[in-house]
Amino acid sequence: METCKTHKKAVDRLKSQLRNGMLPHAPLFVGPEGVGRLDVVRSLTAALFCTENPDSACGNCPSCRAFESGEHPDYREFGVPEGRRSLPIESIRELQTAASRKPVMGRLRAFTVRDAELMSTEAANCFLKTLEEPPGECYLFLIATGLRNLPETIVSRCQVIKLTGLDPETVKMRLCNDGIDPQDAAWLAMRSWGSPERASTFYGRKMHEFNRELVEKTLSMNLNCNFIMSDFFQESAKKSGADAAQQRTALQELLECLAVIYRDIATLIREPDGEIFNEHARDALAAYACDYDLDAALDCADKTLLALERIGANVNRRIALDDLFSSLPRPSR
After folding, report:
1. Mean local confidence (pLDDT), 185-196
2. Which end of the chain is more exposed for a tag (fewer CB within 10 A), N or C?
3. Residue 115 maps to which CATH number?
4. Within a domain: residue 182?
5. What is the DSSP string of 54-71?
6. For residues 249 and 230, what is the distance between their CA atoms, to the nearest angstrom?
7. Within this chain, do residues 29 and 151 fall inside the same structural domain, yes or no?
8. pLDDT score for 5
């Protein structure tokens, strides 16, 4: 199995378990999109199927060649079907049927569930039965961006393997090589939590431009801006999503930008030379921070994240935004 420098610790642990025959039947890979989660899973699966090398795919045996071509009869991947917003119970039942069959090429079968956190309640309950009583020698690999939306009953039956994002400087250099302005690239790299894929998506949606405008609006915000800020967020979300669900997700991501601004302000209060996301606005944020106290800045960040969670729970977006911008404390100047 090839080692990725970013995930070396996790990969080395898996290689050791594989070598000693102690690999758990249900590893759960958690990390942001675009950091190689599926690559790690596929490398591990190829090593499992390999008949020549005990802890890494040789690439030459019939099993390795079948896996490399995407035609291995004992491996399948399941994810959210096109046009759906969640992983339905039908997909899990299909997985269960496939897992109950005897292996074709070797002694085991393996399946990957992408977007595991998007399993419907019915799918999750159905999948739990397979986790509790896996058929034969069968490995179930799960991939998720986080644990918050996964039932504890599923998490507790898996070995959680956390994969971190890439170093922001690495992501920044990739973006700069694509012709993106260095300041925008630096913000996108940090805002995407080290995920090149997410950084590129944010760039395509012009989130860096939104953020620059948001910084200016936040630093000049007053009690008369409540509804203006609500409109600004809603209109920006509409530009980035085709349907209501996509707009809701986009709005949550935009609110994260606001939480990050308050995080930067809190950082500058505690450590004037500290690392911040909005380096392009350091001087303006530092001046603003002089009139804020730490508790107020952290309170603003917490209230923003609460609004984000409320919107995720299907609270009316207008109400959630109006409540937020009516409650944010202003600097004491």
Report:
1. 90
2. C
3. 3.40.50.300
4. no
5. SSS--S-SHHHHHHHTT-
6. 16
7. yes
8. 54
Percent of the chain's residues with pLDDT above 70: 94
Any idea which residue has 């998720």 for tokens?
A: 144
Together in a domain, 124 and 263: no
Task: Please answer whether residues 229 and 268 qualify as being in contact, where contact means their C-beta atoms are separated by less than 8 angstroms.
Answer: no
pLDDT tens digit sequence for 88-142 = 999 999 999 999 999 999 889 999 999 999 998 999 999 998 898 888 789 999 9
Pairing of strands 109-113, 159-162: unpaired
Residues 160/112/193/201 CA torsion (nearest 10 deg): -170
* CA dist., res. 321 & res. 225, Å (int): 12
Say whether both 240 and 138 belong to one domain.
Answer: no
Contact 4, 40 (CB under 8 A): yes
Domain of 222 in residue numbering reads as 205-327
| 142, 162, 182 - which closes a domain | 162
